Amino acid sequence: MEQPSHVDDTGTDTPPSHLAALIDAALASHRTGQPRAAESLYRQALALDPANPRVLHYFGVLHYQRGDHETAARLMNEALRLDGDDAACWSNRGLVAAALGHAGEALACYEEALQRQPDFADAHNNCGVALQAQGAFGEAIEHYRQALASNPAMVDVHLNLGTALARLDRFDEALACYGNALSLDPQSAQAHFNAGNAHNARGHHQAAVVSFERALALRVDYVEAHINLGSLVGKRGDYAGAESHYRRAVALKPTPAHLVCLGGSLGAQGRLDEEEVFYRRALALDPNYADAHQNLAWLLLKRGDYRQGWAAFARRWRQSDYEALAIPGVAEWRGEPLAGRRLLVVGEQGFGDHFQFLRFARVLERLGATVDLCVCEPLLPLVERIPGVRRAFSGRPDFHYDSPYDFWVPMMSVPSCIGTELSTVPAQVPYLFATPKKIAAWRKRMGAAGQTQRKVGLVWAGSPTFGNDRYRSIALTELHRLGALDNTAWYALQKGPAHAQLADAPAAFGAHDFTAELASFEDTAALIMNLDLVVAVDTGVAHLAGALGKPVWLLLPANADWRWLETRCDSPWYPGMTLFRQTTLGDWTPVVEQVYEALRNGRR
């Protein structure tokens, strides 16, 4: 985080001896942290010389440090009227302007200081801070470099330069700056903290952990370090460790954001009753805090309380996320009658969410709407064939004249608009359909292989960037027992980095690996239609198979997602789906044994 420089002092006035002694004593008291003594001495000096610019300047500085920025501005303005060549006063006046929220005036003051003293390191640093706040990172970096050219021992400037470089994703250079800061001040908790952020951004998570821990060793009440370390260890699957750091942050600073972090770490451990308390506390502080609404919604939906859950979910939006999705000039649909209305349904979040909620297109069409879909491009061929959809397209709609729509709605807000309950989830499948020609092509190819066994698709891992991926994905080695089944022919549906695990897997898992030929969801859907069953962890392919009407055995961690509820072994969303749940987080052995026995016995 950028920091303005310390108070500047380059004045050289030489007043009469008594006044000079008062001023020297005032400045000495000021510098040694004795503000009351300093104030008394400044007032005595001004009584002797009310027009002394140096006294006015630093008495203004004292007011600035106390938070009385209006008085500080008035005093410094008078000092500059009397001596407009004082670079230090111009620089400090800029700090006051920044504190008052006058960014343009602050920048102008720093520039005035630099016109009078081009090598003024503090003014260059302050100018860099002002430019950085405006997003002018390149110009800010140049000022920081000029400051260091004049005074390479300024720790704050090394930190600020590192921050600006990090904002431009120049993390190696940023780390070098933080290293320079630490060589000057090894006890700088902020330098360790900033280095932790840069290491984390580069994906060097262990180095980030070390840096955050060093920051906390130096400053135990460093709230931001507790939060960032908690988030980092939580993403690595250590939810108990995350909880510990979030609790410390909440004890120090119980903001809505920190309360939600703590609640999320409890929910990830399956402690739902404790989790809810912190979301409610966050909303008591800020009734519009979107993250609290979203996490509370997930909790309520997981419990099966769809009435309250969907209502909370409708308030999930951060402003920037909503604006990126909203359709300008079109009213958002909130449940008004749809007969004869034109409705645009806009997809959101991941592929699995799309596949799950596309079912509502048919419901909306039955309510009388003409339904169009705006979705991610990879989904277009599939969604164009959904019953109830007139047209599907990708990208932002561009209306040159009048909008062709009466309403738009985020796809996942539809349940809240129509009052969906557990008992009224539209579960008619299939509602996605593969291309008959592609289905036939796969049937011919698979038939030529002479397979007489049960054909089972397998997906064992999701995206590694997903927050709970450590627990929702399975290492293929943990499924090796399934490869020994004689009555099962495995078809790998696994894409992404986890596909490489096939190299060390039993031959049965790689015997029918067509993933290199699965260039689209259309291809995957057509292959799935030739399978008897899909065994998968919680990924988009599981939703795709369910929406195609295929039987799915879903392997769930103990901290499963909200949509699978808490204890059920079936799903109200997909009639052909069976849920196999962990009882202990991270322990897949009992789940694999259940799947093995079910396959061995030919269970459907």
TrEMBL record:
- Which superkingdom is the protein from? Bacteria
Q: Where are the TPR repeats?
A: 53-86, 87-120, 121-154, 155-188, 189-222, 223-256
User: Do the record's keywords include Cytoplasm?
Assistant: no
| InterPro entries, alphabetized | Glyco_trans_9, TMTC_O-mannosyl-trnsfr, TPR-like_helical_dom_sf, TPR_rpt
Does the UniProt entry include the keyword Disulfide bond?
no
Keyword set for this entry? TPR repeat
Against PROSITE patterns, the record matches this protein to: TPR (PS50005), TPR_REGION (PS50293)
Can you provide one Gene Ontology molecular function annotated for this UniProt record? glycosyltransferase activity
- Which PANTHER family does the UniProt entry name for this protein? PROTEIN O-MANNOSYL-TRANSFERASE TMTC1 (PTHR44809:SF1), PTHR44809
Protein name (Swiss-Prot/TrEMBL): Tetratricopeptide (TPR) repeat protein
What species is given as this protein's source?
Paraburkholderia bryophila
At the highest ranks, the source species' classification is: Bacteria, Pseudomonadati, Pseudomonadota, Betaproteobacteria, Burkholderiales
